[in-house]
Design brief:
alpha/beta, two-stranded antiparallel ribbon, about 40% helix, single chain, Helicase, Ruva Protein, domain 3
C-alpha cells in the first residue's frame, strides 16, 4: 500500500503490531488520530507511556498492580485460604465482575503448550507451589481454559500438589445459559452430562 507520508506509514506499522488489528484498521486509527486535536493524541500517548512505566505485577499473585501488592491480596476481607488459578489478568477481571468469588488469585502468565515451546519455566507455577507450601491454603480452584493446553496445565499443577492436603477443584463447565443443545459442541455437552447436579 502506498502511504502519503512516511510518518503515517510508521504509525500504521506500529499500530498494526497490536493483536487483532490489521493494516487497514491501523490506517483508519492513524488517520483518526491525525484528525483530532493534538492534545487528544498527546493524552493517549501519555496514558500509554504512564501505563508502561508505572504498572507493576503483584509479588504474591502476579496480578496487575499500581503499587506493591495488588488490592486483592492486600484486602483483609478476602478469604486468604483459597486461591483461584487463572491464565492471565483478563480472567481475574472476568471472575471479579461476577461478584461470586472472594478468595485470592494466582496469575500463571499463560498455559503449558509444548508445541509453542511454553514450559513450566515460562509460567509462575513455582511461585504458586511456594505459596501453597508457605501459606495456609485450603483450596486451589483451577479456572483454566477448556482446551487441551488448559487441561494439561491443570493436570500438571494437580500432579505436583498430589501429596499436599490442599483440595484441588476445577470450575464447572457446561452449557451456557440461553443456548440450544443442538448448537453446543460435543465436549461441552458431554462434560455437562458427566458433571450434572441434582435438581
Amino acid at each position: 500500500m502506498e502511504y502519503p507520508s512516511k510518518h503515517i506509514e510508521h504509525a500504521v506499522t506500529e499500530i498494526a503490531r497490536l493483536p487483532g488489528i490489521g493494516k487497514k484498521t491501523a490506517l483508519r486509527l492513524a488517520l483518526y488520530l491525525l484528525s483530532q486535536e493534538t492534545s487528544q493524541t498527546q493524552s493517549l500517548s501519555d496514558a500509554l507511556t504512564d501505563m508502561r512505566k508505572n504498572v507493576r505485577y503483584c509479588p504474591d499473585c502476579r496480578n496487575i498492580s499500581d503499587d506493591g501488592r495488588c488490592r486483592i491480596c492486600s484486602n483483609p476481607k478476602r478469604d486468604h485460604s483459597m486461591i483461584c488459578v487463572v491464565e492471565d489478568t483478563r480472567d481475574v477481571m472476568a471472575i471479579e465482575n461476577t461478584s461470586q468469588y472472594f478468595g485470592l488469585y494466582h496469575v500463571l502468565g499463560g498455559i503449558l503448550s509444548p508445541i509453542d515451546g511454553i514450559s513450566p519455566d515460562d509460567l509462575t507455577v513455582d511461585l504458586l507451589f511456594r505459596r501453597c507450601r508457605d501459606e495456609e491454603i485450603n483450596e486451589l480452584i483451577l479456572a483454566l481454559p477448556a482446551t487441551m493446553e488448559g487441561d494439561t496445565t491443570a493436570f500438571y499443577i494437580s500432579k505436583k500438589l498430589n501429596n499436599s492436603s490442599i483440595t484441588i477443584s476445577n470450575i464447572a463447565r457446561g452449557v451456557p445459559v440461553g443456548s440450544e443443545l443442538e448448537y453446543t459442541d460435543e465436549i461441552t455437552l458431554g462434560r455437562s452430562i458427566a458433571n450434572r447436579t441434582k435438581f
